[in-house]
Amino acid sequence: MDAPDCDRQELADALVTLGRVNRYLGGGRLIRRQVSRLLTHRRPGPVRLLDVGTGGGDVAVDLLHRLGRIGWAPSFVLADRHEGTLELCRENVRRGVGQLSKERFSYVQLDGVSLPFPDGSFDVAFCTTTLHHLEDQEARELLGELARISRVGWTVTDLRRSRTSYALMRALSATVWRGRRMCRADAPVSVLRSFTPVEARRLALAALAAGEPGPVLERSPLRWALRGTSA
């Protein structure tokens, strides 16, 4: 999925599948819970969010609808380093939000390890199912950048490296995703490349500046989440 010359239709299929994985295997619920907890003690109103490694943009679309129902007026910057992914993201978002809400989204192609935004540019920055694409040093840099640009807090969720996760992805690759070459090849490898919850928290602690609160770790059978608040 990261290759610049990957087939557009295969990439589109993979992004649709990733959206379904978020919906049905807990990723969407987990990121909604983290963002909601960051905003719990604040009065609903305008809120600016950054989604790094946005993929198909499905998580941001879901957050737009759900935050809107409880009084928030969210706007999003959706970021990805892959040009083809960002083009497909625009199309997915337009379909998912309609004409009136599409102005709440802007798009930027960037590398998450060096975000081109001033300190505190966003209320909340988040990243889902992206950290496993990075080496340890890059992951630390991304976590540090998310903390730097967030006024309220930041959150990251990803696959959990475990025998259970790997077995499930192997089973899905052999059945549901059997006809989707990119998903069939990528899913089990993604689990093997992922961090355990303890590893992820250790990376975050190493990334945060002195005096910043340590992140809250939440585990689920297939995923983990980290949530940090601004100092």
Mean pLDDT: 88
Number of structural domains:
1
Which homologous superfamily in CATH is the superfamily? Vaccinia Virus protein VP39
Strand order of the largest sheet: 3-2-1-4-5-7-6
CA-to-CA gap between the ends? 36 Å
Beta-strand percentage range = 15-25%
Question: The CATH topology, please?
Answer: Rossmann fold
SSE class: alpha/beta
Q: Would you list the SSEs in sequence order as H and E?
A: HHEHEHEEHEHHHEE
What does this structure look like?
This protein has 231 residues and is α/β, with parallel strands linked by helices. The protein has a single domain (8-160, 195-229), classed as Vaccinia Virus protein VP39 (Rossmann fold, 3-Layer(aba) Sandwich). The protein is built from eight helices and seven strands. The protein has a seven-stranded mixed β-sheet with strand order 3-2-1-4-5-7-6, sandwiched between helices. Strand 6 (216-219) and strand 7 (223-229) form a beta hairpin. Helix 2 packs across helix 3 (58-69), helix 3 runs parallel beside helix 4 and helix 6 packs antiparallel against helix 7 (181-193). The longest helix has 19 residues, at 83-101.
